[in-house]
Amino acid sequence: MVSLTDCQRIGVGLVGFGLFFVLFGMLLYFDSVLLAFGNILFLSGLVFIIGFRRTFTFFFQRPKLKGTSFFLGGVLIVLMRWPLLGMLLEAYGFINLFRSFFPVAFGFLGSLANIPVLSKLLQKVGDSSSMV
């Protein structure tokens, strides 16, 4: 198991609450206050997890400047109470920022099929052909 410092544990909690508030804000028809609060919690949690300097260097690398500008611009637009446009900009920026991470994540999800209980569950879900 990975050992986390107290600051990293706080960061994981902040990121979790941030994602919760963003999802809850989208469920409530793009409530701008919840989305803005979720964005602030997510970004502050990221700083707590990996540190300010590493967060800054991640976001402001030359190949990632386009994604960073769209993501942070989307956060700013959400804070100015234009939630739908802001979330679209954020989603585009998020995809551009974490493009290199997606194959790793999908590879991990593909390896979950090797877990005995989960593979049987996935098999049963795949066998059902009815769409009802």
Highlighted features:
mainly alpha; 7 helices; globular; single chain; 132 residues
What is Rg? 18 Å
Give me the strand/helix succession: HHHHHHH
Tell me the span between the first and last alpha carbons.
41 Å
The helix count comes to 7
Low-confidence region ranges: none
Largest beta-sheet characterization? none
- What is the oligomeric state here? single chain
Mean pLDDT: 88
Describe what this molecule looks like in 3D.
This protein has 132 residues and is mainly α. The protein has helices at 6-27, 32-50, 52-59, 65-79, 83-97, 102-111, 116-127. The termini are far apart.
Brief summary:
The chain is built from 7 helices and no strands.
Outline the fold blueprint.
Layout: H1 6-27, H2 32-50, H3 52-59, H4 65-79, H5 83-97, H6 102-111, H7 116-127
